[in-house]
Amino acid sequence: MTAPDATALDRLARYHLVPVVVLDDAARADGLAAALAAGGLPVAEITFRTAAAEESIRVMAARGDVLVGAGTVLTIEQVDRAVAAGAGFVVSPGLSRAVVERCGEHGVPVLPGVVTATEVQAALELGVSTVKFFPAGTSGGAKAIAALAAPFGGVRFVPTGGVGPGNLAEYLALPSVHAVGGSWMVPRDAIAAGNWTAVRELTTEAVALAATARPDRWTE
Q: Measured between alpha carbons, how far is 95 from 219 in angstroms, rounded to an integer?
């Protein structure tokens, strides 16, 4: 098994934020990547919820200026497709041994979803110490992460689900939070309309908010 490249996870920590994107048309992928980069956040998690996901990852990865990952990855077949398309990291809503091990074989970092101490411990047994906390909003939010971080001091969390401008600072205030996933800066209707000005402005605002909440980190 190849050791995953930590560089992608390091970059997520520097950016504070991971835009969680649903793309319905791969033709919008390049414009979205450009808008995110212009807004100061050259990173995206493209969810495998649509038929356009794989090609969108390929288009964005080919640019070379955006760290693109695959989200909502449920099977090893999706892992293979995502990595072949150029995904630099993989995100899963739950903890799947098969998905984690396949990502390890590819040498690609994986963020499996967890919400309980049992799941965190299972992730650690698989060699994963940075996990997605999902769904964050309905699973106790920042208080739950703080409670889990107490016995698992080496674990880093990426809360996703129910996160927005109103509670972003609450999550980023926790030392155990590696980055935060959210979709408010990449609204699906704006992407569908090709409204890149709106995406860029929302992204710029999100980056500024994150920088205020966690000034000890920096972005590239």
A: 29
For residues 118 and 124, give the distance between their C-alpha atoms in angstroms, rounded to a whole number: 10
The catalytic position among 45, 54, 55, 205 is 45
- The whole-model pTM stands at 0.95
The residue type of 50 is T
- Which residue in 79, 108, 73 sits closest to 94, CA to CA? 73
Q: What is the pLDDT of residue 218?
A: 45
Write out pLDDT tens, residues 115-130: 999 999 999 999 999 9
Partners of residue 21 on adjacent β-strands: 46
Angle at 14 between CA 11 and CA 15, to 5 degrees: 90
- What is the C-alpha separation between 19 and 11, in angstroms, rounded? 13
First-to-last C-alpha distance (Å) of the chain: 30
Catalytic residue list contains 45: yes
Check if 143 is active-site: no
User: Which residue in 125, 132, 143, 201 is the catalytic one?
Assistant: 132
Render pLDDT for 49-84 as a digit per residue (tens, 0 to 9). Answer: 999 999 999 999 999 999 999 999 999 999 999 999
Query: Domains of the chain (ranges plus CATH)?
Result: 7-212 (3.20.20.70)
Q: CA–CA separation, 218 vs 67, rounded Å?
A: 16
DSSP, residue by residue, 160-220: BSS--TTTHHHHHTSTTB--EEE-TTS-HHHHHHT-HHHHHHHHHHHHHHHHHH-TT----
